[in-house]
Amino acid sequence: MTTHTASLFSIATGSADPIYRQLVEQVRRLVVSGQLAPGDEMPSVREIAQALALNPMTVSKAYGLLEMDGVLARRRGLGMIVAGTAGAGKPAERAALLRPTLERAAREARELELDPRTALDLFAAILKEAQ
Amino acid sequence: MTTHTASLFSIATGSADPIYRQLVEQVRRLVVSGQLAPGDEMPSVREIAQALALNPMTVSKAYGLLEMDGVLARRRGLGMIVAGTAGAGKPAERAALLRPTLERAAREARELELDPRTALDLFAAILKEAQ
Amino acid sequence: MTTHTASLFSIATGSADPIYRQLVEQVRRLVVSGQLAPGDEMPSVREIAQALALNPMTVSKAYGLLEMDGVLARRRGLGMIVAGTAGAGKPAERAALLRPTLERAAREARELELDPRTALDLFAAILKEAQ
Amino acid sequence: MTTHTASLFSIATGSADPIYRQLVEQVRRLVVSGQLAPGDEMPSVREIAQALALNPMTVSKAYGLLEMDGVLARRRGLGMIVAGTAGAGKPAERAALLRPTLERAAREARELELDPRTALDLFAAILKEAQ
DNA sequence: GTGGTCTAGACCACA
DNA sequence: GTGGTCTAGACCACG
Description:
4 copies of one chain form a homotetramer.
Chain A: H1 2-8, H2 19-32, H3 45-52, H4 56-68, E1 72-75, E2 79-82, H5 91-111, H6 116-129
Helix pairs in contact in A: 1-3, 2-4, 3-4
Chain A binds a DNA duplex through helix 4.
């Protein structure tokens, strides 16, 4: 499962936003996109910590927040699983998670007095190159 | 100029990213979009601080960074002005400032397994509604 | 007896307090209230474990604590029975088991600056609706 | 303010539920009971930590949860204040916070086959003695 | 084995 | 000065 763990997450230790938050958001996206299904067992805290060279407490903090959020569920002494309530995620639901970033982009475009057409073309290009 | 100041910036004190950074980025966008032209006088630190109810040191820090960046220029004893070198901003240059946010959006869309088409449509809708 | 077992206990696996403790307290209350009389045979560990989908070790731990407490007695090779010493329970004795929770409620009411009258009325209402 | 801090909270380090949660719940009750009003400055993390002989991180964790819950608000670099949205707390609202514990007491009373009358009398006595 | 909690101490970002 | 984050290491509760 370790190899699985390593490929499941990609953490930028030097990033602006904290590691635990990167973990939280990635798990949330993996769940809502269906790559993690309800009932799936999550890698253990220690496993992730070792695979990503993090302190277990950092991972634990992320798990704790995800549990509070209802995304993960704790099975005492047995580890965490993806919560049953965590909907598989319809396209509309997934799009909702993308909205904040796109709204920010729209605001910036407006402040830059960029033509909507230009902004859209740029986004299209970026989506293509990242493919 | 005070009334001008209040309307020039919009600061969200409760936002995730720090106030000084919001100031820096807003000034940068105003300059590159031509809403602030080279030679224009910037409001004084204390003027902005008072208008937006901020700590003067916060405003000062933003001005310092903008000066380091060559966006603003300091005239000893006379306040800051928009630097002459600060180009009015060709479209390509402006688009460059939008890129990071769009790249982030593209990455999130991929992690959500959203169709590029869907992401683009959503962006188009947001751009339209924000108009 | 299995059917009996399932209805005898109600375990909330997602609850805040541990499963083994829920078992211990429920047995203690059943005994002191007379619903389990001295000499009664308790369901076997594996029987309870299967009926409630619990780890047998969890049930075993609860039985161990109840034995230490003198509530249950172990008959080698024959399972556990309700201890003879486990008095049927006079009202005063039963009330003692309720005290801790009520003391906690009283403390919380005080911290909430709730009128004792209000707290009492609320408790009366809850007792009634749960009947 | 230190003396204030010491008297504001009462922590049982040996208690079953964790320190950070005791802090969270006490603050929540103080806010909803009006003893802490919106806009009030909270003691600093270090101040509480020192007054109660706790690790600052433990206090910080409590503050973080209270912020996520909307009970407290962070003023960056200036400390935490009671959130404006944190309603002063009508009696009904306060009673709601007492409900869970009373529901638990009611359930236990029922399992003990205690007369509602007896349970109520016991609660009345406890409320009186704690006064 | 699992996650949870706490401590100690360091460093950073912000105002 | 404020809170936030991370690390290291210990201990506990649970199953």
